[in-house]
Amino acid sequence: MPLADTTVTTTHAAAIARLGYALSDATRTGVLLALREAPARPSDLADTLGVSRQVMSNQLACLRGCGLVEATRDGRRSLYRLADPHLAPALGELVRVVLHVDPTCCSNDGCTCS
Questions:
Q1: Who has the most CB within 10 Å: 53, 54, 83, 97?
Q2: In this protein, which residues make up the domain named HTH arsR-type (predicted)?
Q3: Could you give all domains of the chain from N- to C-terminal order, each with its CATH number?
């Protein structure tokens, strides 16, 4: 079904590919889902997602590089939020998608589905 008000361009395809890359990692996905609720500090995100602060720093750098999150200064600390207001509802729609996945099909080793 064509988009009603937008022509899809290579820029759109690149943006969706960046989002797909971001969602391919459970920690990055958790960050994006957490930030759709409210802005957060990296240390709070690390605690919530059960990862080290170094891992969180690396994942936030990746998400910034993809253009999905942005940081603002909050005193001496940073506060992260989603970079685009359209991203929160889009993530909400993705959460509503029901996928029937064979747990033995797609693992961290790659997809073995045929």
A1: 83
A2: 8-102
A3: 10-111 (1.10.10.10)
